[in-house]
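Entry
Fold in token form

___
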Amino acid sequence: QVQLVESGGGLVQPGGSLRLSCAASGSIFNRRDMAWYRRAPGKQRAVVAVVTSGNTTTYVDSVKGRFTISRDNAQNTVYLHMSSLKPEDTAVYYCNKMPAGPYDYWGQGTQVTVSS
């Protein structure tokens, strides 16, 4: 069964923190590079952070030093710890394998809203 279930989003003030979780089925997660993506209002979905099967991490410049991606291989789970959040981080956040395109299976995502 293919499954991606994102959780942990919410409303947070600028400067705040959130931790997102993604439970993935083994068919998507096992031995694959995984990523967090986000779709901001009026924009296309884009990669935010990647964790390889070997635990190497990379980030887009806009979140470097603020976001941390990690994975738990025993639980088929990917995490995104976000701190020093900014209004421009407002988006729906998704996890998936890396790369993943529009014809791949996607979960519902989790909404993150950064606002005072």
In short: The beta strands are 4-7, 10-12, 18-24, 34-39, 46-51, 57-59, 67-72, 77-82, 91-97, 110-114. The mean pLDDT is 96. Helices lie at 26-29.
